[in-house]
Amino acid sequence: MVNVFQSLLLVIAGATQKELARQVKYLKVENQILRSKLPKRITVMLKERNHLDKFALSAFGHISREI
Q: How many Å apart are CA 33 and CA 10, to the nearest integer?
């Protein structure tokens, strides 16, 4: 019975991973399109940078400086 439950969880997790991968792919394409409509250089205020850093820390466990 435990193996059936574990197998079911693996199937659900796999489906979730595939759905997340599709969402990430969509967001990448959307980002690319939106970035093409922006000027070459965009300035980010310190308050905005701190806001992004807060979410990067909670999402990735570290602060990404590539933003």
A: 35
